[in-house]
Write a structure and sequence with these properties.
The protein contains 11 helices and 12 strands. Helix 5 links the parallel strand 8 and strand 9. The protein has 338 residues and is an alpha/beta fold.
């Protein structure tokens, strides 16, 4: 639109931010952050049985797979470019015990799942959680004595758990237990058994959060918690400087990568960690975050495709190298389609 002769010079802006947004090609050209399937790790749940898939009621669209059904599911993720999966077991109550001995049973659900995936897809990255809560009849990430989670006794159990997972074929050991000193002892245990090439991704800043509820349904650990709360080892949501101390310790002890959990409510922590340390930094887009968006979208309140990619881009913008997310397969499909 041309200016009339009476329009003062300078009334129209010389700098127009919208110019770069005018076309799809120009928006792509100036885009500051990029999300690709390479940024995604897909958490999968494994259950007992053969030829069995069962839904997780509080996580619409998420299922538990029997070990023999995992390779086909992982094949789709692999074809979409997702580089790794993370395995979490729904251990039956009959296999849980106060000492969590099932955690280092070389034929437990995790080890069965790892072997099934690696036999079918040897070049797919496999990550395993190291914590006792799926196997502990007290519901805690560590061993409970007289109502208290024992730190140093738990470290010994975690090492035994990690070793059977690696011997089954696990590539990345990811301790989520939040016991003091666990990265150092795990690194030493792995190296002493000739597993110096195995990666350690530490859940370095794992908060005591209300966003984990659907996950506990998925691994069938809900209702087992006894004694003290997880507040005694997971972080206080009010704290940020403490997270930096936790990350610094884990890096010093030998962590190759660090993680912040939960994700979206803690992007400020992700940003501070990445800015301070510059190490490979990940976040877990946890079950409660997934359920909120999925249920809202299923009820017409949100555009599912749009909020999935928008929320995952937020992790990249905050500084994440990658994200563990239940949206991984859907997001990878959307990225391929676009």
């Amino acid at each position: 639109m041309s200016r009339g002769p009476s329009t003062p010079v300078g009334v129209f802006p010389q700098t127009r931010m919208r110019r770069n947004r005018r076309w799809d090609w120009s928006r792509r050209l100036v885009r500051e952050n990029t999300l690709t399937p390479d940024d995604l790790i897909w958490p999968v749940f494994v259950c007992e049985g053969t030829d069995h898939i069962e839904p997780v009621p509080t996580m619409p669209g998420v299922v538990r797979y029997s070990p023999d059904r995992l390779p086909a599911a992982v094949a789709e993720a692999k074809a979409l470019g997702i580089p790794a999966v993370a395995i979490f077991p729904a251990t039956p109550a009959s296999a849980k015990s106060p000492g969590a001995e099932e955690a280092w049973n070389p034929d437990n659900l995790v080890c069965q799942a790892v072997r099934a995936i690696k036999d079918a897809h040897p070049d797919m990255g496999v990550m395993c959680d190291v914590a006792l809560d799926p196997f502990n009849s007290d519901g805690h990430d560590g061993i409970v004595r007289d109502g208290h989670v024992e730190n140093d006794e738990t470290l010994e159990a975690l090492c035994r758990q990690a070793l059977v997972q690696v011997e089954a074929g696990c590539d990345v050991i990811a301790p989520s237990d939040m016991m003091d000193g666990r990265i150092g002892v795990l690194r030493e245990a792995l190296d002493s058994e000739g597993h110096e090439k195995v990666l350690l991704m530490s859940y370095a800043a794992k908060y005591s959060s209300g966003f984990y509820g659907p996950f506990r349904d998925a691994i069938e650990s809900k209702g087992f918690l006894k004694g003290e709360t997880k507040d005694t080892y997971q972080m206080d949501p009010a704290n940020t400087d403490e997270a930096l101390r936790e990350v610094a310790l884990d890096i010093e002890e030998g962590a190759d990568m660090v993680m912040v959990k939960p994700g979206l409510p803690y992007l400020d922590i992700v940003y501070r960690v990445k800015e301070r340390f510059g190490v490979p930094t990940f976040a877990y887009n946890v079950s409660g975050e997934y359920a909120m968006l999925r249920i809202a979208a299923d009820n017409g309140a949100l555009d599912y495709d749009r909020v999935v990619l928008e929320s995952l881009m937020a992790f990249k913008r905050a500084g994440c190298n990658g994200v563990l997310t239940y949206f991984a397969v859907d997001a990878a499909r959307l990225l391929h389609d676009s």
